[in-house]
């Protein structure tokens, strides 16, 4: 396994490789070749690199320690990110076959299901958003699609958990304001309840499309179409297929916040690709897949070709704990989309290869010299940040290099083993409309701080905001 690309003497280099090599040479604060070793063309090298990144990521996880809570990350991480991390570890098993983390993932995924097995956990009410619940649901959906080992028969099953999340959210579809859509926050007492954000509705769309594909049930597809149409009608997606952040019910969703995040484009891309496949090649959904993918160009560096960056915060050093992980999901969903919409494979992989090589160079921090930073465009000059999000982003883009080596997602008709329950989540008694006095003022302040970060983090960064 050679160090890549620091000692490349080949005559013909891809343009992205030359740019990265130049960036590496210019990074004078660290030795040139201290970054993680990765050859994007060598499956063994990819698996070894992914293994190191996954190992380093789990140094932040304490839920498997005696006395701690399975399925929780310590501060400053919010609950949803652990569900997203488990999805990354499911992908790790899917791509590499390395099962060493499977028991940890299963333990955490099952511990957090809540009393009604729908990922509505009572101890998370002060920050529970539809997007938070939805990330757990998407991880359960991935487990069903990838044939991640099924839980014991007396435990909730992956498909039923995904269905439960979807059903609880369908019941929350709110026509009182903005003619539909899901609110960001589930509970009325949380700041952000008056905000309808794109990621919550995108997750709902994504789950609906994937459940339609997996089960063959048209009802899920109907909901997916409804969610897509609402996103367009309210202006959270522009005519040019740029996805924005959200809008407020208090203004009937006329105040669209035009920040653009990688994960919004990604979540709709995979949903659209599944709808294309479910409809047996609909021209409408093919066009939508193409247009979404084309407009992801805003998330790639103009100076280091095909290397992903979080344009809303990364150039301005304003990314927060959540933002550090967003590139993981665009990488994850772009790769997964190639299984549902195969014609996009070459376009996607050109970006994945360049970004993975760049991410490996940035994995040059910490005591081991392998912890990953966020700024992949900086080459081997570690940006000084590290955490779950940075590790997850690097892990997903690296292991996505193996997408052509694995089978596509299964369905009920093509070998899926996960047991479903179409009525899961529709009869629970966990009412999100709890009285105001059930939460203390300090909890309101905490939730308000999170909302403020989302809404104001882009002030002063306007060139990437589309009119």
H/I helix tally: 14
Low-confidence stretches: 1-33, 428-467
* Gyration radius from CA atoms, angstroms: 21 Å
Q: Briefly note the structural class of the backbone.
A: mainly alpha
Strand/helix succession: HHHHHHEHHEHHHHEEHH
Global outline: globular
The helical percent reads 40-55%
Per DSSP, what share of the residues sits in E-state strands of 2 or more residues?
Answer: under 5%
**Strand runs, count:** 4
Distance between the termini: 48 Å
Main sheet: strand order = 1-2
Mean pLDDT: 88
Largest sheet: 2 strands, antiparallel
Walk me through the structure:
By secondary structure, the protein is an all-alpha fold. The chain is 45% helix and 2% strand. Strands 1-2 form a two-stranded antiparallel ribbon. A hairpin with a 5-residue loop joins strand 3 and strand 4. Helix 5 (130-146) runs antiparallel to helix 6. The longest helix has 18 residues, at 79-96.
């Amino acid at each position: 396994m050679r160090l890549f690309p620091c000692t490349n003497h080949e005559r013909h280099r891809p343009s992205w490789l030359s740019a990265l090599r130049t960036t590496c040479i210019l990074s004078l604060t660290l030795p040139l070749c201290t970054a993680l070793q990765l050859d994007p063309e060598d499956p063994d090298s990819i698996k070894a690199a992914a293994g190191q990144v996954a190992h380093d990521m789990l140094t932040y996880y304490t839920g498997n320690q005696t006395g701690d809570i399975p399925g929780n990350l310590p501060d400053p991480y919010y609950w949803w990110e652990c569900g997203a991390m488990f999805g990354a570890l499911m992908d790790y098993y899917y791509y590499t076959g390395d099962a060493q983390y499977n028991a940890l993932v299963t333990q955490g995924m099952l511990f957090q299901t809540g009393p009604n097995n729908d990922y509505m956990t009572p101890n998370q009410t002060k920050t529970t958003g539809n997007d938070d619940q939805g990330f757990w649901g998407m991880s359960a959906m991935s487990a069903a699609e990838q044939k991640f080992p099924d839980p014991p028969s007396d435990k909730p099953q992956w498909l039923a958990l995904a269905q439960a999340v979807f059903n609880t959210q369908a019941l929350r579809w709110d026509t009182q304001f903005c003619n539909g859509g899901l609110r960001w926050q589930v509970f009325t007492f949380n700041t952000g309840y008056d905000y309808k954000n794109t990621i919550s509705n995108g997750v709902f769309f994504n789950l609906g499309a994937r459940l339609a594909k997996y089960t063959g049930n048209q009802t899920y597809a109907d909901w997916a179409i409804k969610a897509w149409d609402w996103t367009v009608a309210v202006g959270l997606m522009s005519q040019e297929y740029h996805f924005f952040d959200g809008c407020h019910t208090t203004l009937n969703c006329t105040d669209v916040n035009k920040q653009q995040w990688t994960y919004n484009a990604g979540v709709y891309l995979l949903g659209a690709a599944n709808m294309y496949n479910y409809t047996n090649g609909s021209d409408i959904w093919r066009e939508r897949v193409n247009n979404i993918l084309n407009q992801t160009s805003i998330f790639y560096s103009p100076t280091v070709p095909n290397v992903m960056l979080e344009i809303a915060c990364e150039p301005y050093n304003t990314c927060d704990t959540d933002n550090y992980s967003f590139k993981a999901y665009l990488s994850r969903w772009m790769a997964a989309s190639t299984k549902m919409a195969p014609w996009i494979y070459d376009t996607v992989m050109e970006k994945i290869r360049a970004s993975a090589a760049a991410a490996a160079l940035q994995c040059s921090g910490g005591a081991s010299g392998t912890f990953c930073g966020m700024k992949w465009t900086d080459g081997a000059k570690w940006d000084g940040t590290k955490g779950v999000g940075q590790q997850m982003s690097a892990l997903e883009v690296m292991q996505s290099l193996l997408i052509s080596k694995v089978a596509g997602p299964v369905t009920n008709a093509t070998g899926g083993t996960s047991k479903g329950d179409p009525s899961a989540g529709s009869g629970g008694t966990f009412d999100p409309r709890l009285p105001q006095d059930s939460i203390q003022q300090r909890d309101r302040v905490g939730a308000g701080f999170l909302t403020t970060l989302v809404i104001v983090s882009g002030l002063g960064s306007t060139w990437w905001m589309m009119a």
